[in-house]
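Notes from the 1:1 (GR / supervisor)

We went over the backlog. Supervisor wanted to see one worked example end to end before approving the batch request, so GR pasted a single chain during the call. The sequence is below; no edits were made to it. Supervisor asked that the structure be written out right there so they could see what the output format looks like.
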Amino acid sequence: MEALAAPAAATTAETRTAECGSAVRGELVRVLFGHDHRAAHGPWRALLTTEPFRRRSGLAPDAQLRLAYGRLRTLNSTLDSAFRLAADPVALANMHEWLSPVDTALTTVAGIHYNLFLGTLLDHDGDGDVQRDLSDFADLTRVGTFLCTELDHGNDATALETTARYDRARAGFLLRTPHAGAQKFMPNTSTAGGPKSGVVAARLLVDGRDLGVFLFLTALTGAEGPLPGVRVRLLPRRMGSVVDHCLTSFDDVLVPREALLSGAQGRLDAEGTFSSEVVNRRSRFLLSIGRVTAGKLSMSASAVGSARAALAVAVRHGSHRLIGGVRTPERVPVMAHRSHYAPLAGALATAYAMTLLHRTVLRTWTEQDRPEQDRPERDRPDGAGRAEAERLVAVAKAWITWEARAVITECRERCGAQGLLENNGLAALVTGIEGAITAEGDNLAIHAKAAAGMVSGHRPPRPPADPAGRELTDPVFLRELLAAVECVEFDRARAGMAEAAPGDALGRWNAGATAALRAATAHAQLRAAEAVAAATDALPPGSAAAELLHTLGRLFALERIAPRSGDLLNEGYVEGRHVAAIPAETDRLAARIAGQAQVLTGAFDLPAEWLADVPVAGAGYASAYDDPEGPWHRPAGDARR
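Structure output shown during the call:
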Protein backbone atom coordinates (compact mmCIF):
# COMPACT_ATOMS: atom_id res chain seq x y z
CA MET A 1 0.00 0.00 0.00
CA GLU A 2 2.86 2.38 0.82
CA ALA A 3 4.25 1.83 -2.66
CA LEU A 4 0.97 3.10 -4.08
CA ALA A 5 0.61 6.01 -1.68
CA ALA A 6 3.38 8.20 -3.09
CA PRO A 7 2.16 8.01 -6.69
CA ALA A 8 -1.38 8.72 -5.53
CA ALA A 9 -0.22 11.81 -3.65
CA ALA A 10 1.80 12.95 -6.63
CA THR A 11 -1.17 12.42 -8.89
CA THR A 12 -3.30 14.53 -6.58
CA ALA A 13 -0.70 17.31 -6.62
CA GLU A 14 -0.46 17.17 -10.40
CA THR A 15 -4.24 17.28 -10.64
CA ARG A 16 -4.39 20.36 -8.43
CA THR A 17 -1.67 22.05 -10.48
CA ALA A 18 -3.53 21.23 -13.69
CA GLU A 19 -6.80 22.51 -12.21
CA CYS A 20 -5.08 25.73 -11.13
CA GLY A 21 -3.58 26.16 -14.61
CA SER A 22 -6.98 25.48 -16.15
CA ALA A 23 -8.62 28.11 -13.96
CA VAL A 24 -6.00 30.70 -14.85
CA ARG A 25 -6.35 29.81 -18.52
CA GLY A 26 -10.12 30.30 -18.27
CA GLU A 27 -9.65 33.74 -16.69
CA LEU A 28 -7.21 34.75 -19.43
CA VAL A 29 -9.57 33.50 -22.16
CA ARG A 30 -12.21 35.86 -20.77
CA VAL A 31 -9.63 38.67 -20.63
CA LEU A 32 -8.71 38.20 -24.28
CA PHE A 33 -12.11 37.40 -25.75
CA GLY A 34 -14.65 38.84 -23.32
CA HIS A 35 -17.21 37.22 -21.05
CA ASP A 36 -19.45 36.59 -24.06
CA HIS A 37 -16.61 34.89 -25.94
CA ARG A 38 -18.59 31.75 -26.72
CA ALA A 39 -21.29 33.76 -28.46
CA ALA A 40 -19.01 36.30 -30.15
CA HIS A 41 -16.07 34.07 -31.07
CA GLY A 42 -17.41 30.54 -30.69
CA PRO A 43 -18.98 30.14 -34.15
CA TRP A 44 -15.79 31.24 -35.92
CA ARG A 45 -13.63 29.07 -33.69
CA ALA A 46 -15.92 26.11 -34.37
CA LEU A 47 -15.38 26.46 -38.13
CA LEU A 48 -11.69 25.65 -37.62
CA THR A 49 -12.62 22.22 -36.30
CA THR A 50 -14.68 21.19 -39.32
CA GLU A 51 -13.31 19.19 -42.23
CA PRO A 52 -13.61 21.93 -44.91
CA PHE A 53 -11.36 24.20 -42.85
CA ARG A 54 -8.69 21.68 -41.83
CA ARG A 55 -5.19 22.34 -43.11
CA ARG A 56 -4.42 21.27 -46.69
CA SER A 57 -0.80 21.17 -47.79
CA GLY A 58 0.78 20.70 -51.18
CA LEU A 59 -2.04 22.19 -53.24
CA ALA A 60 -1.23 23.98 -56.47
CA PRO A 61 -2.16 27.70 -56.53
CA ASP A 62 -5.28 27.18 -58.65
CA ALA A 63 -6.47 24.46 -56.30
CA GLN A 64 -5.82 26.75 -53.32
CA LEU A 65 -7.94 29.45 -54.95
CA ARG A 66 -10.79 27.02 -55.59
CA LEU A 67 -10.53 25.88 -51.98
CA ALA A 68 -10.74 29.49 -50.74
CA TYR A 69 -13.93 30.22 -52.69
CA GLY A 70 -15.34 26.84 -51.71
CA ARG A 71 -14.70 27.66 -48.07
CA LEU A 72 -16.39 31.03 -48.59
CA ARG A 73 -19.55 29.22 -49.67
CA THR A 74 -19.33 26.83 -46.74
CA LEU A 75 -18.90 29.77 -44.38
CA ASN A 76 -21.86 31.55 -45.95
CA SER A 77 -24.04 28.47 -45.46
CA THR A 78 -23.40 28.59 -41.70
CA LEU A 79 -24.62 32.18 -41.33
CA ASP A 80 -28.10 32.95 -40.08
CA SER A 81 -27.87 36.16 -42.14
CA ALA A 82 -25.17 37.46 -44.45
CA PHE A 83 -26.71 40.91 -44.02
CA ARG A 84 -26.36 40.73 -40.23
CA LEU A 85 -22.68 39.86 -40.55
CA ALA A 86 -22.06 42.65 -43.06
CA ALA A 87 -23.75 45.19 -40.77
CA ASP A 88 -21.74 44.24 -37.68
CA PRO A 89 -18.11 45.48 -37.54
CA VAL A 90 -17.43 43.42 -34.41
CA ALA A 91 -18.55 40.19 -36.08
CA LEU A 92 -16.53 41.07 -39.19
CA ALA A 93 -13.41 41.65 -37.08
CA ASN A 94 -13.95 38.39 -35.18
CA MET A 95 -14.29 36.53 -38.48
CA HIS A 96 -10.94 37.89 -39.66
CA GLU A 97 -9.31 37.09 -36.33
CA TRP A 98 -10.09 33.37 -36.55
CA LEU A 99 -9.89 32.77 -40.30
CA SER A 100 -6.54 34.45 -40.95
CA PRO A 101 -4.41 31.65 -39.45
CA VAL A 102 -6.36 29.13 -41.55
CA ASP A 103 -6.49 30.63 -45.05
CA THR A 104 -5.35 34.14 -45.98
CA ALA A 105 -7.03 33.90 -49.40
CA LEU A 106 -10.36 32.98 -47.82
CA THR A 107 -10.02 35.82 -45.33
CA THR A 108 -9.32 38.27 -48.14
CA VAL A 109 -12.27 37.32 -50.35
CA ALA A 110 -14.61 37.07 -47.34
CA GLY A 111 -13.60 40.51 -46.09
CA ILE A 112 -14.11 42.02 -49.54
CA HIS A 113 -17.50 40.37 -50.07
CA TYR A 114 -19.07 40.95 -46.65
CA ASN A 115 -17.50 44.25 -45.61
CA LEU A 116 -16.39 46.29 -48.60
CA PHE A 117 -19.06 45.09 -51.03
CA LEU A 118 -22.17 43.95 -49.17
CA GLY A 119 -21.56 46.31 -46.25
CA THR A 120 -21.24 49.27 -48.60
CA LEU A 121 -24.50 48.33 -50.33
CA LEU A 122 -26.28 48.05 -46.98
CA ASP A 123 -24.95 51.45 -45.94
CA HIS A 124 -26.55 52.93 -49.05
CA ASP A 125 -29.60 50.68 -49.34
CA GLY A 126 -33.04 52.22 -49.37
CA ASP A 127 -31.87 55.77 -50.03
CA GLY A 128 -34.37 57.87 -51.94
CA ASP A 129 -36.35 56.02 -54.64
CA VAL A 130 -33.89 53.13 -55.01
CA GLN A 131 -34.64 49.71 -53.53
CA ARG A 132 -32.17 46.95 -54.44
CA ASP A 133 -32.64 43.22 -54.35
CA LEU A 134 -29.46 41.98 -52.66
CA SER A 135 -30.47 38.32 -52.36
CA ASP A 136 -28.03 37.17 -55.06
CA PHE A 137 -25.18 38.55 -52.98
CA ALA A 138 -26.47 37.11 -49.71
CA ASP A 139 -26.63 33.57 -51.11
CA LEU A 140 -23.45 33.98 -53.23
CA THR A 141 -25.22 33.51 -56.54
CA ARG A 142 -22.96 36.45 -57.31
CA VAL A 143 -19.74 37.18 -55.41
CA GLY A 144 -19.08 40.81 -54.56
CA THR A 145 -15.86 42.74 -54.94
CA PHE A 146 -14.65 46.34 -54.53
CA LEU A 147 -12.94 48.38 -57.25
CA CYS A 148 -11.43 51.54 -55.84
CA THR A 149 -7.67 51.96 -56.23
CA GLU A 150 -6.13 52.34 -59.68
CA LEU A 151 -2.74 51.61 -61.12
CA ASP A 152 -1.79 55.29 -60.74
CA HIS A 153 -3.78 56.01 -57.56
CA GLY A 154 -3.63 54.21 -54.22
CA ASN A 155 -3.87 56.26 -51.05
CA ASP A 156 -4.64 59.34 -53.17
CA ALA A 157 -7.94 57.77 -54.18
CA THR A 158 -9.68 61.14 -54.42
CA ALA A 159 -7.69 61.60 -57.63
CA LEU A 160 -9.17 58.51 -59.31
CA GLU A 161 -9.60 58.86 -63.07
CA THR A 162 -12.22 56.24 -63.98
CA THR A 163 -15.30 58.21 -65.09
CA ALA A 164 -19.05 57.67 -64.88
CA ARG A 165 -20.64 60.10 -67.37
CA TYR A 166 -24.37 60.56 -66.98
CA ASP A 167 -26.23 59.85 -70.24
CA ARG A 168 -29.60 61.60 -70.02
CA ALA A 169 -30.99 59.90 -73.11
CA ARG A 170 -30.47 56.45 -71.65
CA ALA A 171 -30.92 57.45 -67.97
CA GLY A 172 -27.69 55.74 -66.99
CA PHE A 173 -23.96 56.13 -66.57
CA LEU A 174 -21.18 55.20 -68.97
CA LEU A 175 -18.20 53.78 -67.06
CA ARG A 176 -14.94 54.45 -68.84
CA THR A 177 -11.24 53.86 -68.17
CA PRO A 178 -9.49 56.76 -69.93
CA HIS A 179 -5.95 55.32 -69.98
CA ALA A 180 -3.85 52.43 -68.67
CA GLY A 181 -2.99 54.15 -65.40
CA ALA A 182 -6.70 54.37 -64.54
CA GLN A 183 -7.22 50.60 -64.60
CA LYS A 184 -8.64 49.28 -61.35
CA PHE A 185 -5.74 47.68 -59.53
CA MET A 186 -5.98 44.37 -57.66
CA PRO A 187 -9.71 43.61 -57.29
CA ASN A 188 -10.57 39.89 -57.38
CA THR A 189 -12.51 40.15 -60.62
CA SER A 190 -11.67 36.91 -62.45
CA THR A 191 -14.23 34.19 -63.05
CA ALA A 192 -12.86 32.20 -60.10
CA GLY A 193 -15.56 31.67 -57.49
CA GLY A 194 -18.43 32.31 -59.89
CA PRO A 195 -20.09 35.38 -61.45
CA LYS A 196 -19.12 38.67 -59.83
CA SER A 197 -20.44 42.17 -59.31
CA GLY A 198 -18.48 45.08 -57.93
CA VAL A 199 -18.81 48.42 -56.26
CA VAL A 200 -16.83 50.68 -58.59
CA ALA A 201 -15.40 54.05 -57.58
CA ALA A 202 -15.63 56.50 -60.48
CA ARG A 203 -15.67 60.24 -61.09
CA LEU A 204 -19.26 61.40 -61.61
CA LEU A 205 -19.66 63.67 -64.63
CA VAL A 206 -23.03 65.37 -65.18
CA ASP A 207 -23.46 67.86 -68.03
CA GLY A 208 -19.72 68.44 -68.12
CA ARG A 209 -19.44 69.04 -64.36
CA ASP A 210 -17.03 66.93 -62.29
CA LEU A 211 -18.90 66.24 -59.05
CA GLY A 212 -16.25 64.05 -57.43
CA VAL A 213 -15.80 60.34 -56.90
CA PHE A 214 -18.85 58.18 -56.15
CA LEU A 215 -19.61 54.45 -56.04
CA PHE A 216 -21.55 52.46 -58.64
CA LEU A 217 -22.92 48.91 -58.42
CA THR A 218 -21.77 47.14 -61.58
CA ALA A 219 -22.08 43.58 -62.89
CA LEU A 220 -18.61 42.48 -64.00
CA THR A 221 -18.58 38.84 -65.03
CA GLY A 222 -20.98 36.07 -65.92
CA ALA A 223 -20.64 32.32 -66.17
CA GLU A 224 -18.58 32.63 -69.36
CA GLY A 225 -16.31 35.49 -68.38
CA PRO A 226 -16.26 39.32 -68.35
CA LEU A 227 -19.42 41.07 -69.54
CA PRO A 228 -19.33 43.27 -72.67
CA GLY A 229 -17.14 46.34 -72.20
CA VAL A 230 -15.42 44.95 -69.10
CA ARG A 231 -11.79 43.90 -69.47
CA VAL A 232 -10.16 41.71 -66.82
CA ARG A 233 -6.52 40.61 -66.77
CA LEU A 234 -4.89 38.56 -64.02
CA LEU A 235 -1.97 40.21 -62.25
CA PRO A 236 1.19 38.26 -61.39
CA ARG A 237 0.69 36.21 -58.24
CA ARG A 238 1.02 38.28 -55.10
CA MET A 239 3.47 37.20 -52.42
CA GLY A 240 1.69 35.07 -49.86
CA SER A 241 -1.70 35.00 -51.56
CA VAL A 242 -3.47 33.02 -54.25
CA VAL A 243 -6.34 35.52 -54.56
CA ASP A 244 -7.31 36.30 -58.16
CA HIS A 245 -6.06 39.88 -58.14
CA CYS A 246 -6.65 41.56 -61.51
CA LEU A 247 -6.44 44.71 -63.56
CA THR A 248 -9.95 45.75 -64.59
CA SER A 249 -11.05 48.42 -67.04
CA PHE A 250 -14.27 49.68 -68.66
CA ASP A 251 -15.08 50.73 -72.20
CA ASP A 252 -18.30 52.78 -71.96
CA VAL A 253 -20.13 50.19 -69.89
CA LEU A 254 -23.72 51.36 -69.39
CA VAL A 255 -25.16 51.00 -65.88
CA PRO A 256 -28.61 52.30 -64.84
CA ARG A 257 -29.17 55.46 -62.79
CA GLU A 258 -29.98 53.23 -59.81
CA ALA A 259 -26.39 51.94 -59.89
CA LEU A 260 -25.22 55.15 -58.18
CA LEU A 261 -24.91 54.54 -54.44
CA SER A 262 -26.66 57.61 -53.09
CA GLY A 263 -26.67 59.17 -49.67
CA ALA A 264 -25.83 62.38 -47.90
CA GLN A 265 -22.77 62.65 -50.13
CA GLY A 266 -24.97 63.03 -53.22
CA ARG A 267 -28.09 62.01 -55.13
CA LEU A 268 -29.19 62.19 -58.74
CA ASP A 269 -32.96 62.35 -59.21
CA ALA A 270 -35.02 61.00 -62.11
CA GLU A 271 -34.60 64.32 -63.97
CA GLY A 272 -30.82 64.10 -63.65
CA THR A 273 -30.55 66.87 -61.05
CA PHE A 274 -27.68 66.41 -58.58
CA SER A 275 -27.89 67.42 -54.93
CA SER A 276 -25.59 66.87 -51.96
CA GLU A 277 -25.55 67.64 -48.26
CA VAL A 278 -21.73 67.70 -48.37
CA VAL A 279 -20.02 70.63 -50.09
CA ASN A 280 -16.45 69.29 -50.16
CA ARG A 281 -15.80 66.70 -52.88
CA ARG A 282 -13.14 64.93 -50.81
CA SER A 283 -15.56 64.62 -47.92
CA ARG A 284 -18.18 63.17 -50.27
CA PHE A 285 -15.78 60.45 -51.32
CA LEU A 286 -14.64 59.63 -47.79
CA LEU A 287 -18.27 59.34 -46.72
CA SER A 288 -18.90 56.94 -49.61
CA ILE A 289 -16.03 54.62 -48.67
CA GLY A 290 -16.69 54.60 -44.94
CA ARG A 291 -16.39 50.81 -44.95
CA VAL A 292 -12.62 51.17 -45.22
CA THR A 293 -12.53 51.97 -41.50
CA ALA A 294 -14.20 48.67 -40.67
CA GLY A 295 -11.65 47.13 -43.01
CA LYS A 296 -8.79 48.59 -40.97
CA LEU A 297 -10.31 47.07 -37.84
CA SER A 298 -10.50 43.74 -39.66
CA MET A 299 -6.84 43.97 -40.70
CA SER A 300 -5.89 44.54 -37.05
CA ALA A 301 -7.98 41.51 -36.13
CA SER A 302 -6.24 39.40 -38.78
CA ALA A 303 -2.90 40.44 -37.34
CA VAL A 304 -3.66 39.61 -33.71
CA GLY A 305 -5.16 36.25 -34.68
CA SER A 306 -2.15 35.33 -36.82
CA ALA A 307 0.36 36.48 -34.20
CA ARG A 308 -1.32 34.42 -31.48
CA ALA A 309 -1.43 31.33 -33.72
CA ALA A 310 2.29 31.67 -34.51
CA LEU A 311 3.10 31.98 -30.81
CA ALA A 312 1.04 28.93 -29.90
CA VAL A 313 3.04 26.89 -32.41
CA ALA A 314 6.44 28.30 -31.43
CA VAL A 315 5.91 27.81 -27.69
CA ARG A 316 4.76 24.22 -28.14
CA HIS A 317 7.72 23.50 -30.40
CA GLY A 318 10.20 25.08 -28.00
CA SER A 319 8.83 23.04 -25.12
CA HIS A 320 9.25 19.62 -26.76
CA ARG A 321 12.23 20.19 -29.06
CA LEU A 322 15.16 18.64 -27.15
CA ILE A 323 18.77 19.67 -27.62
CA GLY A 324 22.05 18.78 -25.95
CA GLY A 325 22.42 19.99 -22.38
CA VAL A 326 25.46 21.28 -20.57
CA ARG A 327 26.50 17.73 -19.65
CA THR A 328 26.37 14.77 -22.02
CA PRO A 329 24.03 12.89 -22.41
CA GLU A 330 21.67 15.44 -20.84
CA ARG A 331 18.87 16.67 -23.13
CA VAL A 332 16.86 19.82 -22.42
CA PRO A 333 14.05 21.62 -24.23
CA VAL A 334 15.33 24.46 -26.37
CA MET A 335 12.85 26.65 -24.45
CA ALA A 336 15.10 26.26 -21.40
CA HIS A 337 17.63 28.63 -22.97
CA ARG A 338 17.17 32.34 -22.32
CA SER A 339 18.33 33.08 -25.85
CA HIS A 340 15.30 31.13 -27.06
CA TYR A 341 12.61 31.96 -24.51
CA ALA A 342 13.31 35.68 -23.97
CA PRO A 343 12.25 36.76 -27.49
CA LEU A 344 9.13 34.58 -27.22
CA ALA A 345 8.31 36.03 -23.80
CA GLY A 346 8.53 39.52 -25.24
CA ALA A 347 6.37 38.42 -28.17
CA LEU A 348 3.77 37.02 -25.73
CA ALA A 349 3.64 40.34 -23.90
CA THR A 350 3.20 42.10 -27.24
CA ALA A 351 0.47 39.71 -28.39
CA TYR A 352 -1.58 40.29 -25.25
CA ALA A 353 -1.11 44.05 -25.55
CA MET A 354 -2.03 44.00 -29.25
CA THR A 355 -5.15 41.97 -28.62
CA LEU A 356 -6.36 44.17 -25.77
CA LEU A 357 -5.63 47.36 -27.73
CA HIS A 358 -7.62 45.94 -30.64
CA ARG A 359 -10.57 45.25 -28.33
CA THR A 360 -10.37 48.81 -26.97
CA VAL A 361 -10.23 50.39 -30.44
CA LEU A 362 -13.06 48.21 -31.74
CA ARG A 363 -15.23 49.18 -28.78
CA THR A 364 -14.35 52.87 -29.23
CA TRP A 365 -15.34 52.75 -32.89
CA THR A 366 -18.60 50.87 -32.45
CA GLU A 367 -19.67 53.29 -29.72
CA GLN A 368 -19.75 55.95 -32.42
CA ASP A 369 -22.83 54.22 -33.81
CA ARG A 370 -24.87 54.71 -30.65
CA PRO A 371 -27.89 57.01 -31.01
CA GLU A 372 -26.74 60.63 -30.96
CA GLN A 373 -28.86 61.53 -27.96
CA ASP A 374 -26.99 58.89 -25.94
CA ARG A 375 -23.61 60.42 -26.63
CA PRO A 376 -21.89 63.59 -25.40
CA GLU A 377 -21.55 66.39 -27.93
CA ARG A 378 -17.87 65.70 -28.73
CA ASP A 379 -18.69 62.09 -29.59
CA ARG A 380 -21.39 62.91 -32.14
CA PRO A 381 -20.65 62.45 -35.84
CA ASP A 382 -20.29 66.21 -36.37
CA GLY A 383 -17.98 66.59 -33.36
CA ALA A 384 -14.40 65.63 -32.70
CA GLY A 385 -15.17 62.17 -31.34
CA ARG A 386 -15.64 60.36 -34.64
CA ALA A 387 -12.53 61.90 -36.18
CA GLU A 388 -10.51 60.89 -33.12
CA ALA A 389 -11.92 57.37 -33.28
CA GLU A 390 -11.01 57.05 -36.97
CA ARG A 391 -7.50 58.29 -36.23
CA LEU A 392 -7.13 55.77 -33.40
CA VAL A 393 -8.29 52.99 -35.75
CA ALA A 394 -5.59 54.01 -38.25
CA VAL A 395 -2.81 54.29 -35.66
CA ALA A 396 -3.76 50.95 -34.14
CA LYS A 397 -3.98 49.22 -37.53
CA ALA A 398 -0.49 50.34 -38.49
CA TRP A 399 1.10 49.56 -35.13
CA ILE A 400 -0.64 46.21 -34.61
CA THR A 401 0.14 44.86 -38.08
CA TRP A 402 3.78 45.98 -37.88
CA GLU A 403 4.14 44.39 -34.44
CA ALA A 404 2.43 41.23 -35.67
CA ARG A 405 5.00 40.93 -38.45
CA ALA A 406 7.80 41.10 -35.87
CA VAL A 407 6.08 38.51 -33.64
CA ILE A 408 5.36 36.09 -36.50
CA THR A 409 8.88 36.41 -37.89
CA GLU A 410 10.35 35.70 -34.45
CA CYS A 411 8.16 32.61 -34.08
CA ARG A 412 9.14 31.36 -37.52
CA GLU A 413 12.82 31.70 -36.64
CA ARG A 414 12.39 29.95 -33.30
CA CYS A 415 11.02 26.94 -35.19
CA GLY A 416 14.13 26.82 -37.37
CA ALA A 417 14.00 25.26 -40.80
CA GLN A 418 10.72 23.53 -39.98
CA GLY A 419 9.15 26.96 -39.74
CA LEU A 420 9.84 27.38 -43.45
CA LEU A 421 7.95 24.26 -44.46
CA GLU A 422 4.51 24.83 -45.97
CA ASN A 423 2.81 22.14 -43.90
CA ASN A 424 3.59 23.94 -40.64
CA GLY A 425 1.75 27.09 -41.70
CA LEU A 426 4.20 29.64 -40.31
CA ALA A 427 5.55 30.58 -43.73
CA ALA A 428 2.01 31.46 -44.83
CA LEU A 429 1.59 33.66 -41.76
CA VAL A 430 4.89 35.42 -42.53
CA THR A 431 3.79 36.34 -46.05
CA GLY A 432 0.13 36.80 -45.14
CA ILE A 433 0.81 39.59 -42.67
CA GLU A 434 2.35 41.64 -45.48
CA GLY A 435 -1.08 41.85 -47.09
CA ALA A 436 -2.62 43.21 -43.90
CA ILE A 437 0.14 45.82 -43.66
CA THR A 438 -0.78 47.16 -47.12
CA ALA A 439 -4.55 46.55 -47.28
CA GLU A 440 -7.19 49.16 -46.34
CA GLY A 441 -4.59 51.92 -46.43
CA ASP A 442 -0.85 51.31 -46.62
CA ASN A 443 0.56 51.45 -43.09
CA LEU A 444 3.07 54.24 -43.58
CA ALA A 445 0.57 56.42 -45.41
CA ILE A 446 -2.19 56.10 -42.80
CA HIS A 447 0.35 56.35 -39.97
CA ALA A 448 1.71 59.58 -41.43
CA LYS A 449 -1.77 61.03 -41.92
CA ALA A 450 -2.72 60.22 -38.34
CA ALA A 451 0.56 61.59 -37.02
CA ALA A 452 0.09 64.86 -38.91
CA GLY A 453 -3.37 65.27 -37.40
CA MET A 454 -2.06 64.54 -33.92
CA VAL A 455 0.74 67.10 -34.17
CA SER A 456 -1.83 69.86 -34.59
CA GLY A 457 -4.76 68.48 -32.63
CA HIS A 458 -3.48 66.14 -29.91
CA ARG A 459 -2.00 67.60 -26.70
CA PRO A 460 -1.65 64.76 -24.18
CA PRO A 461 -1.04 65.70 -20.52
CA ARG A 462 2.64 65.68 -19.65
CA PRO A 463 3.56 63.34 -16.76
CA PRO A 464 5.65 64.71 -13.89
CA ALA A 465 9.43 64.50 -14.28
CA ASP A 466 10.03 63.38 -10.70
CA PRO A 467 11.72 59.96 -10.67
CA ALA A 468 13.01 60.08 -7.10
CA GLY A 469 11.72 57.08 -5.19
CA ARG A 470 10.01 55.61 -8.23
CA GLU A 471 10.71 51.99 -9.16
CA LEU A 472 10.54 49.90 -12.31
CA THR A 473 8.24 47.51 -10.47
CA ASP A 474 5.52 50.18 -10.49
CA PRO A 475 3.34 49.81 -13.62
CA VAL A 476 1.97 53.33 -13.16
CA PHE A 477 5.50 54.72 -13.34
CA LEU A 478 6.17 52.68 -16.49
CA ARG A 479 3.05 54.02 -18.21
CA GLU A 480 4.07 57.56 -17.25
CA LEU A 481 7.40 56.94 -18.98
CA LEU A 482 5.60 55.78 -22.12
CA ALA A 483 3.49 58.94 -21.96
CA ALA A 484 6.65 61.00 -21.57
CA VAL A 485 8.12 59.47 -24.73
CA GLU A 486 4.99 60.50 -26.63
CA CYS A 487 5.23 64.08 -25.32
CA VAL A 488 8.95 64.37 -26.10
CA GLU A 489 8.41 63.27 -29.69
CA PHE A 490 5.44 65.56 -30.28
CA ASP A 491 7.52 68.47 -28.92
CA ARG A 492 10.29 67.61 -31.36
CA ALA A 493 7.86 67.39 -34.26
CA ARG A 494 6.33 70.78 -33.50
CA ALA A 495 9.73 72.39 -32.97
CA GLY A 496 11.01 71.05 -36.28
CA MET A 497 7.92 72.20 -38.16
CA ALA A 498 8.13 75.66 -36.59
CA GLU A 499 11.61 76.12 -38.05
CA ALA A 500 10.52 75.33 -41.62
CA ALA A 501 10.34 78.08 -44.23
CA PRO A 502 6.96 79.87 -44.33
CA GLY A 503 4.65 78.81 -47.13
CA ASP A 504 6.37 75.46 -47.72
CA ALA A 505 3.77 72.94 -46.55
CA LEU A 506 5.75 69.89 -47.68
CA GLY A 507 8.95 71.24 -46.18
CA ARG A 508 7.13 71.95 -42.92
CA TRP A 509 5.83 68.38 -42.73
CA ASN A 510 9.20 66.88 -43.66
CA ALA A 511 10.85 68.87 -40.88
CA GLY A 512 8.67 67.22 -38.26
CA ALA A 513 7.74 63.92 -39.92
CA THR A 514 10.34 61.64 -38.30
CA ALA A 515 9.46 62.72 -34.78
CA ALA A 516 5.73 62.79 -35.54
CA LEU A 517 5.79 59.18 -36.75
CA ARG A 518 7.66 58.12 -33.62
CA ALA A 519 5.11 60.02 -31.53
CA ALA A 520 2.20 58.19 -33.17
CA THR A 521 3.93 54.88 -32.45
CA ALA A 522 4.48 55.94 -28.84
CA HIS A 523 0.78 56.81 -28.60
CA ALA A 524 -0.17 53.31 -29.76
CA GLN A 525 2.24 51.75 -27.27
CA LEU A 526 0.80 53.81 -24.43
CA ARG A 527 -2.77 52.92 -25.36
CA ALA A 528 -1.81 49.24 -25.52
CA ALA A 529 -0.18 49.45 -22.07
CA GLU A 530 -3.31 51.15 -20.72
CA ALA A 531 -5.47 48.38 -22.18
CA VAL A 532 -3.39 45.75 -20.38
CA ALA A 533 -3.63 47.74 -17.14
CA ALA A 534 -7.41 48.03 -17.44
CA ALA A 535 -7.72 44.27 -18.01
CA THR A 536 -5.48 43.61 -14.99
CA ASP A 537 -7.49 45.91 -12.75
CA ALA A 538 -10.70 44.11 -13.75
CA LEU A 539 -9.40 40.84 -12.27
CA PRO A 540 -9.46 39.93 -8.57
CA PRO A 541 -6.40 41.58 -6.97
CA GLY A 542 -3.62 39.13 -6.26
CA SER A 543 -5.14 36.36 -8.42
CA ALA A 544 -2.79 34.26 -10.51
CA ALA A 545 -4.29 35.64 -13.72
CA ALA A 546 -3.88 39.23 -12.50
CA GLU A 547 -0.25 38.57 -11.57
CA LEU A 548 0.45 37.12 -15.01
CA LEU A 549 -1.12 40.13 -16.75
CA HIS A 550 0.80 42.44 -14.42
CA THR A 551 4.05 40.74 -15.45
CA LEU A 552 3.15 40.86 -19.13
CA GLY A 553 2.32 44.55 -18.85
CA ARG A 554 5.61 45.39 -17.17
CA LEU A 555 7.66 43.47 -19.74
CA PHE A 556 5.76 45.10 -22.59
CA ALA A 557 6.42 48.58 -21.18
CA LEU A 558 10.08 47.97 -20.33
CA GLU A 559 10.89 46.66 -23.80
CA ARG A 560 9.49 49.93 -25.24
CA ILE A 561 11.15 52.15 -22.63
CA ALA A 562 14.62 50.59 -23.00
CA PRO A 563 15.47 52.09 -26.43
CA ARG A 564 14.16 55.50 -25.27
CA SER A 565 16.01 55.55 -21.93
CA GLY A 566 18.50 58.15 -23.20
CA ASP A 567 15.73 60.64 -23.97
CA LEU A 568 14.00 59.89 -20.67
CA LEU A 569 17.23 60.39 -18.74
CA ASN A 570 18.00 63.61 -20.60
CA GLU A 571 14.51 64.98 -19.89
CA GLY A 572 14.69 64.06 -16.20
CA TYR A 573 12.03 61.33 -16.23
CA VAL A 574 14.36 58.58 -15.01
CA GLU A 575 17.57 58.34 -13.03
CA GLY A 576 20.74 56.54 -13.97
CA ARG A 577 19.85 53.68 -11.65
CA HIS A 578 16.68 53.06 -13.64
CA VAL A 579 18.56 52.86 -16.92
CA ALA A 580 21.11 50.50 -15.41
CA ALA A 581 18.40 48.23 -13.96
CA ILE A 582 16.31 47.79 -17.13
CA PRO A 583 18.26 44.85 -18.70
CA ALA A 584 18.27 42.69 -15.56
CA GLU A 585 14.64 43.47 -14.78
CA THR A 586 13.62 42.62 -18.33
CA ASP A 587 15.40 39.26 -18.05
CA ARG A 588 13.65 38.47 -14.77
CA LEU A 589 10.23 39.22 -16.22
CA ALA A 590 10.96 37.19 -19.36
CA ALA A 591 11.90 34.18 -17.22
CA ARG A 592 8.62 34.41 -15.28
CA ILE A 593 6.59 34.61 -18.47
CA ALA A 594 8.47 31.74 -20.11
CA GLY A 595 7.59 29.56 -17.13
CA GLN A 596 3.90 30.20 -17.84
CA ALA A 597 4.12 30.25 -21.64
CA GLN A 598 1.95 27.16 -22.07
CA VAL A 599 -0.81 28.67 -19.93
CA LEU A 600 -0.54 32.00 -21.74
CA THR A 601 -0.78 30.46 -25.20
CA GLY A 602 -3.44 28.03 -24.02
CA ALA A 603 -5.60 31.08 -23.35
CA PHE A 604 -5.48 31.81 -27.09
CA ASP A 605 -8.11 29.04 -27.21
CA LEU A 606 -6.99 27.57 -30.52
CA PRO A 607 -8.85 24.33 -31.22
CA ALA A 608 -6.97 21.07 -30.68
CA GLU A 609 -7.93 20.10 -34.24
CA TRP A 610 -6.14 23.14 -35.64
CA LEU A 611 -2.99 22.47 -33.61
CA ALA A 612 -3.07 18.80 -34.58
CA ASP A 613 -2.74 19.83 -38.23
CA VAL A 614 0.56 21.64 -37.54
CA PRO A 615 3.26 18.95 -37.31
CA VAL A 616 5.89 21.14 -35.65
CA ALA A 617 3.46 21.96 -32.83
CA GLY A 618 3.26 18.32 -31.70
CA ALA A 619 5.67 16.37 -29.53
CA GLY A 620 5.68 13.56 -32.06
CA TYR A 621 6.26 15.80 -35.07
CA ALA A 622 8.87 13.43 -36.53
CA SER A 623 6.12 10.93 -37.29
CA ALA A 624 4.58 13.43 -39.71
CA TYR A 625 7.61 12.87 -41.94
CA ASP A 626 7.42 9.07 -41.77
CA ASP A 627 4.50 8.48 -44.12
CA PRO A 628 5.18 5.40 -46.27
CA GLU A 629 2.69 6.71 -48.80
CA GLY A 630 4.39 10.09 -49.02
CA PRO A 631 5.47 11.36 -52.45
CA TRP A 632 9.18 11.11 -51.61
CA HIS A 633 8.98 7.40 -50.69
CA ARG A 634 10.95 4.99 -52.86
CA PRO A 635 10.52 1.22 -53.09
CA ALA A 636 12.72 -1.01 -50.96
CA GLY A 637 16.04 -1.64 -52.63
CA ASP A 638 16.15 1.75 -54.38
CA ALA A 639 19.73 2.91 -53.80
CA ARG A 640 19.12 6.61 -54.51
CA ARG A 641 19.81 9.00 -51.67
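Supervisor's comment: Residues 232 and 248 are 5 Å apart (CA to CA).
Batch request approved.
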